[in-house]
Amino acid sequence: MKIAFCLCVAAVLLFPFSLPVGAADTDQPPSGHNALRKLGRGCANLLFGIVEVPNQMTKATAAHGGAATFTYGLGKGLVRWVWRECVGVYEIVTFPLPLHGYQPVMEPEFPNEDYEP
User: What is the DSSP track for 99-112?
Assistant: First the structure.
C-alpha cells in the first residue's frame, strides 16, 4: 500500500516535467475544434452562463446609459443566460457527434470571452 502511494505521489510530482517545452507558452485557447473541446465548452456554458447577466448589464450601461442597465441590459442578459444554458446542455449531450464540425453554436464560444467588468 505504501509503495502504491509513493508511486502516485512521484507521478504527480514528476508529471509537469514530462510535458514538452513550450506547451503552455500562450494564453490562446487551442485552435482545433474536437469532441473534448465541445464537451468543455458545454460544461463552461452550463456552469458559467450566469456571467451573461452582469456582462450584458455592463455593456448596456456603457452603450446606452444608466437607464438601460435594468431594462435592456437585464432582459438581454437573462435571455442570453437561458440560451447559453440550453446550448451547454445540447453540447454536452451531442459532444461525441461531429455536428457542424464541432464548431460553437453560440458566439462568443465561452461565456467569459467578452466579459467587461
Answer: GGGG--SSSSSSTT
Residue in the structure block whose three cell numbers are 469532441: 35
CA distance 3 to 82: 50
Spell out the alpha helix ranges (H) of the chain.
Answer: 2-14, 35-48, 52-64, 74-93
* Rounded Cα–Cα distance for residues 57 and 84 (Å): 16
The pLDDT of residue 12: 57
Alpha-carbon distance values, 9 to 2, 3, 16, 42, 76 (Å) = 11, 10, 13, 32, 48
| Segment 48-97, tens digit of pLDDT | 999 999 999 999 999 998 899 999 999 999 999 999 999 999 999 999 99
Determine what percent of the chain is predicted with pLDDT higher than 90. Answer: 53
What are the Cα distances from residue 13, in Å, to 6, 10, 21? 11, 5, 17
